[in-house]
Amino acid sequence: MSNISRQLVLLALGVTAIGAQEAPNAGNWKTWVISSGADHRVPPPPDAAATRGEMEWLRSMTTNPDERTVEQIRYWDAGPPSYRWMEMIARRQSNGESVGTYFARAYAYASMAVYDATVAAQNAKQVYRRPRPEENGLRRRVQVPRGFSYPSEHAATAAAAAVVMAYLVPAEAAYFHSLAEEAGRSRLYAGVEYPSDYAAGMDLGRRVAEQVIAKARLDGSDAVWTGSVPTGPCRWTGANPGNVNGANWKPLLMTTPSEFRPAPPPPCDSPAVQAELAEVRNYPRALTTANLNTNAKALYWQTPEGVFPWAYLTMNRWILEDRLEMDAPRAARAYALLGAAGYDAFIASQDGKFAYWYIRPAQMDPSITPLFPAPNFPSYPSNHSTFSTARAEVMAYLFPERAGLIRAIGKEAGDSRIWAGIHFEMDNQAGVKLGTDVARKFIDWARNDGSQQ
User: Fold this and answer.
1) Cα dihedral sign for 222, 223, 226, 228?
2) What is the DSSP letter of 229?
3) Residue 405: other Cβ atoms inside 10 A
4) Omega before 151 cis (within 30°)?
5) Is it the case that residue 13 has pLDDT exceeding 60?
6) Residue-averaged pLDDT of the chain
7) Which domains does the chain carry?
8) Which residue, among 82, 61, 71, has the nearest Cα to 140 in the 3D structure?
9) In terms of pTM, does the model score above 0.70?
């Protein structure tokens, strides 16, 4: 990466100087749920005498750790504090494990909780300015981070993510909480934080998460749909439509779910739609060598990973490739922007689908055999196109050197639905415009969140 290109990446991420870590102003960045980084302020750190006692404990705990502890240190130090948590959510969905009833909520609320907890931790660090453990003879097993020690942002991140995930997947609450303790304690065994840093960070993260959960409880996602599937020409046919309540959720930044609603689709018997239907019908999908590439891609984008997690797994890789893993606030900011934009994109797409209830191609022409069954909801606009475009645009803003690459990936995700035979091109194009409109709102927010100062 050229020096100029790297500066573009850092600027979008909010980095003001190459090599800068944990910007001192991060505690004042705009937050998503808590009112400011000063919310939930932890009490002052222990005095000098208590700190000496903590140092003795650290020395004893870092001398001869067992292999399992060393592995935990390595695992949680692989990236910024948010890295393993967002990877975990993405991997769970990719593997068919639960992330809650609606995947878009998991990424949004977990990433916003992590970001707000990180900003709050940074705010407290600048207030208390506690140096990290530095006594001679202390074995440090990771690079000593720049910045102050109290409270621990690893612990704050871990507690925030774990409490949100326990709310979303209550059957596995004990598992998430045990992961949080492991993540936070790994910094103690690594010799770079005090026990009181860990305790204060855990408390801070939990309190931030509870405020995020309070917001989540009011988003309307638990409402029971009492409507009925409309009938008539050009209408989707089916029962128990998926995501139907998403059209009525409370957005994060959009003024209403319908703020960017696409224009009505043309009548299904119009020449324009009949031409698009012919394109879907005639697209080559036979399982031959010539069609292998597009078929394989269409199948990938229908996998659990291709539906949503791919963007987070891609961002994880880019953060490490660009050596941005040492900057906890900016990494958390990137994940939260991606998660929040994906959430509103989900709402906007469902609003369009259930405003128009438009028929699927194979419902219009039963001779069309898709590569796989169409999802159980209306066709217009395309969810894939909306989600992929919105998040690709956010990632293009965050990683401008890769803008062309990520936009091409997002386009492939939308195009794949035509290749598979489950969408019209107009569904795709409506989703692209819708996703772009949603993303623009979040990028405008990001440009004024204080991270460029």
Assistant:
1) negative
2) -
3) 15
4) yes
5) no
6) 93
7) 37-216 (1.10.606.20), 244-446 (1.10.606.20)
8) 61
9) yes
